[in-house]
Amino acid sequence: MSELQISIEGNSFTPNRIFCIGKNYDEHIKELGGQTPKEPVVFMKPVSSIEVPFQTLYMPSHGKLLHHEVEVVLLIGKEGKNIPDLDALSHIAGVTIGLDLTLRDVQGRLKKAGLPWEISKSFEQSAPLGIFKSYNPDIINLQNLSFTCSVNEDIRQQGNTCDMLFPISSLISILSGWWVLRPGDIIYTGTPSGVGPLESGDKVYIESPAIGSFSWTLAY
Questions:
Q1: 128 φ, ψ to 5°?
Q2: pLDDT at site 34
Q3: Mean per-residue pLDDT for 101-123?
Q4: Residue 4 has what DSSP assignment?
Q5: Cα 130 from Cα 102, distance rounded (Å)
Q6: What's the CA gap between 166 and 39, in Å, rounded?
Q7: Sign (positive/negative) of CA torsion 121, 127, 133, 139?
Q8: Residue 163: φ, ψ to 5°
């Protein structure tokens, strides 16, 4: 994969890091039998795991149960450290939706053994990403943004950012206390309930009225 560039209103960003938030929707926590966290659960994916829309995704060979997880995704456009909650949204350059693909069987095995689970989350093409739309708070309400995931036109996930345990402004503020957030950083903000398996031949669609619609096809 050649170096990806993200262009928004004449500004170009090179993806820097991908931060992913786990357990940010209560119903998703319940469906997987987890416990509600007291602070955001953070893991990372390499930039090389990004896949642009309308491409073929190839099933990983080291797992058998590939799950879709649709999420609202942010692009940071301004550097910040210890960003106040009230100033957090001003650091966003763009918003889109994406998939956090997960090998659930591999993740379960690694979690049970108390081992890191990058190979269940950070494999090739594990971060399909829609096209970023410039963030304008008059158009995109990050406190009330709806989005869906469908597989072969069957709706599997329906989410809204109003149901987040840690709202987007809080996520940015907290992350900036742990890392200096820099232009090009990407934040996957967590998935709602309804995650489920994907099989070869499936077509997965993700959509948000404020952002757009994107799809990928699965193959061996």
A1: -60, 135
A2: 83
A3: 96
A4: P
A5: 17
A6: 8
A7: negative
A8: -95, 5
- In sequence order, which residues have a C-beta less than 8 Å from that of residue 182 and are 6 or more positions away? 16, 17, 76, 79
Angle at 190 between CA 36 and CA 66, to 5 degrees: 100
Per-residue model confidence as pLDDT tens digits over 121-137? 999 999 999 999 999 99
pTM for this predicted structure: 0.96
- The answer to whether 141 and 168 are in contact (CB under 8 A) is no
Structural domains in the chain plus CATH codes? 13-219 (3.90.850.10)
Q: Tokens in use for 28?
A: 């998703």
Q: What is the CA radius of gyration of the chain?
A: 16
The tens digit of pLDDT for each residue in 144-174 reads: 999 999 999 899 999 999 999 999 999 999 9
| Torsional sign, CA 136, 125, 54, 218 | negative
> 186: which 2 tokens?
């990407």
Query: Is-contact 76 184, C-beta < 8 A?
Result: yes
Would you place residue 1 in the very low, low, confident or very high pLDDT band (cuts 50, 70, 90)? Answer: very low
How far is the C-alpha of 98 from the C-alpha of 206, rounded, in Å? 7
**Rounded (5°) CA angle 156-34-66:** 45
Distance, in Å, from the CA atom of 133 to the CA atom of 187, rounded to the nearest integer, reads: 14
Task: Yes or no: say if 36 and 29 are a contact pair by the CB < 8 Å rule.
Answer: yes
Smallest Cα–Cα separation from 195: which of 13, 46, 34, 62? 34
